Amino acid sequence: VGWTVPVEICSALEGKGIAQAWRQVEAFWQKFSKDGSIARRRREQARAWLWSEIQEGLSSALMSDQSVAARVRELESDVVSGTVAATDAAAEVVDIFLHGAPGAKTAGRRSAKRSRKG
Question: Over the chain, what is the mean pLDDT?
Answer without folding.
Answer: 85
